[in-house]
Amino acid sequence: LVAIGTLVGYDRIVGGGASVDRATCMAVVYFAARALDQRSPPLNVLAVATACLAVAKPLSVVDPAFALPVGATLSILLTIPLRRSLHLPRALGSLIGLLASSVATEIALLPIGALFFSRVTFAGLGLNFAAIPLMAIVQLAGMALVPVALASMAAASAIGYIAPLAARGLIRTAAFAQPVPVLTFRV
Question: How far apart are CA 187 and CA 166, in angstroms?
C-alpha cells in the first residue's frame, strides 16, 4: 500500500502524462493484487491493467504509445519461463535473459512499428545491451538527486555529473545504428 501511495504521488509530481499514467496504473494493479494476497502471474496483471486502460480510454488501443509498451512488456514476460529454465550462472543468465527479452521484444514490436511508422528495425538487439544499463543509471541518479542533496551537496554534485553523462551515452547509442542501414528499413 505504501508503494501504491508512493507511485501515485510520483505520478502527480512528474505531471502525469500518458506513459507515466499507464506505467503507474500497471504497477498499482500489481501492488493492489499483492496487498489483497492475489499472487497471480504477471501476465494476468498486464491483462487487467491493459483492460482498465482500454476501458478508460478506448481509442488508446490504436495509439502506438499504448501498443508499444504493452507489446514490449508482454514479450518480456513471455521470456521469463525460458530464462528460469536455463539454470545458468547469474551473470551469464542476465546476459542471456537480456538477449532473449530483446529478441522477443523486437519480434513483438515488428508489426506495430510496421503498421504505425512504416519502418522496422533490428538495431535494438545490440543497442539494448548499452541502453538498458545507461537508462537505469539516468533514472536512479535522477531519483537520488534531491534526497542526496538534502544530506550532502558534494554527493549531489557528483550525482548531477553522472546523470547527464549516462543520458548522453544513451542518446549516442542510437548513432550506432546509422552506419548499418540494413538494421532499419521502410516497409
Answer: 33
Task: Burial-class residue 156 by CB neighbours within 10 Å (0-12, 13-18, 19+).
Answer: middle
With residue 184 as reference, give the H or E element that holds it. Answer: strand 184-186
Over the stretch 125-138, which tens digit does the pLDDT of each residue have?
Answer: 778 778 888 988 99
Name the pTM for this structure. 0.72
Which of the residues in the chain have pLDDT under 70? Answer: 16, 177, 179, 181
Cα torsion at 131, 132, 137, 139 (round to 10°)?
A: 110
Q: What is the 3-state secondary structure (H, E, C) of 5-52?
A: HHHHHHHHHCCCCHHHHHHHHHHHHHHHHHHCCCCCCHHHHHHHHHHH
The DSSP call for residue 118 is S
Angle made by CA atoms 24, 70, 107, in degrees to the nearest 5: 150
Q: Which three cell numbers stand for residue 111?
A: 508489426
- pLDDT per position as a tens digit, 117-167: 888 877 777 787 788 889 889 988 888 888 898 999 999 898 888 989 999
CA distance 99 to 137: 20
